[in-house]
Each structure stands twice: as structure tokens, then as C-alpha cells.
Amino acid sequence: MARELRGRFDTAYVLPNSLKSALIPWLARIPRRVGYQGEGRFVLLNKRLPNPVGRPPMVAFYSALAGGPHVSDERPKLRFDDAVLDAATALAGVERGSYWAFAPGAEYGPAKCWPAEHYAELARTLFERHGQPIVLLGSGKEASLCEQIAAQSAGACRVMAGKTSLIDAMALIAAARGVVSNDSGLMHVAAAFGVPQAAVFGSTSPEHTPPLNPRARVLWLKEELQLDCAPCFDRVCRFGHTRCLTGVSAQRVEAALDEAVGTPMSA
Questions:
Q1: Is residue 27 exposed (0-12), middle (13-18) or buried (19+ Cβ within 10 Å)?
Q2: What is the pLDDT of residues 137-193, one digit of tens each?
Q3: Does domain 84-261 have CATH number 3.20.10.10?
Q4: Which CATH number applies to 2-66: 3.20.20.370, 3.90.1170.30, 3.40.50.970, 3.40.50.2000?
């Protein structure tokens, strides 16, 4: 791989902190090799930043490599053409702006996931209040979780997990009235589209990977419950109680979502 890259690039930004990740740019003789000091990469990188303490905000962490912290209101935004949105909503049998999207899974593990029964309670309430369906999104691995939520939602939900392409899932988020999710990739998709959203954090930290969206509302109980264990960044709760998640009621998420929906696009 280094031979294939040789002579083609002036600069390499090495994002992981491992020794191995810096080896290919060095072997490729790329003149300027930028990254954090990481695992003692004094020879492999010729522009090194000191390793930060703890887990700083991820955007600032990476943009600093470009001479940042370049965190301004001019962030990249996603958008789809109307045809893409129309095709995705037709697939789910919903109309643009007339449904809610839930993304109840998280690839990282259950310590990130708000309980299924809480999602179901919120789905029932939203459906009773607004008469608008809830589309459940995720990968095929999350289909059973979504089916579990749908079974408890009194007909409020439509399970699309595992039934869409990634583009269709993103489009269904973009065209939704509002989104509820855990700290996950689809949470950041909603943020990039500027969709009103309520994001529930458990084992991870909104100080590290927040949804960068003025229309987002974050629920995290670290201070309220005085959880010294948070954020633990564990895949599974080491204490077996996941109080950081079970303590977030459906009513609180509903209130946060209402507030997010009432926030203007230009906020």
C-alpha cells in the first residue's frame, strides 16, 4: 500500500493514535505527516501534537490537526434532493414532515441504549397526541429490538430497521418531523440535517460527541443522579443497572422533543 501511495500526496493526516496507523505514510515517504504523538510516534510523524488529557470534544480534537480548532457555525450540512426524500418516504408509507423517526439501537453496545419500553411509551404518547406514525430505523441487527418496541406501541410504529438502504434511512431522518435516538451514528445524521432531535446519552458523553445541531436537546443524568461512573464508555454496564438510561423517563424525552421542534431552523 505504501508503494501505491508514494509520490501522490504532500500531506497525510493520521487520525488513529496507534503506531501501526502512522507506518504507511512514513513508508510512502509522504513529506508532511501530521497527527497526535500517540504511541511514541516521534520518527513516523514530523508534525506532532501532544496527546490531550481525557476525551476532549471530538470535532475540536481532529480539527486541531489542521491548525484548528475550526469549530464555527460554518459546519458541513447534509441535504437530499426532493426525489430521494420522496422515494424513501414512499417506501415507508409516510409523508414528509408527518411522522417521527426513532433510532433505538447503537452499534457500540447496550450501555448506550435507552430501554425499549421507554421508546414504546414515547411512541404511544406521540401517536395519541399527533396521530402521526413513528418509523423505527436501524440495521438488520436491530430489527428484533425495533419489533419489540413496535409490539408494545399499540400500532404506533412502523419497523423499517433492516429494510432500507443507508441512504433511505438517512432520507427518512431528513424528512421526519423529529428524531429520538441514543448516541449513535444516526444521531449525528439527524444533527447534520438540522432535524429537531432528542438524544439520550448513557455510557458515553455529550461533552465528547454531542449532536452538533442547534435544534438538538440532550438528556444525560450524570450530574442529576451524581453518577461517578459516568461516562464509563463501557459496552455493557459494569454494575448491571444502567441508571443513566433507565432514569430518563419518556415524559422527559417528550418534553425535550417538543422544545426541539419549537426551535427555529436558524437557531
A1: middle
A2: 999 999 999 999 999 999 999 999 999 999 999 999 999 999 999 999 999 999 999
A3: no
A4: 3.40.50.2000
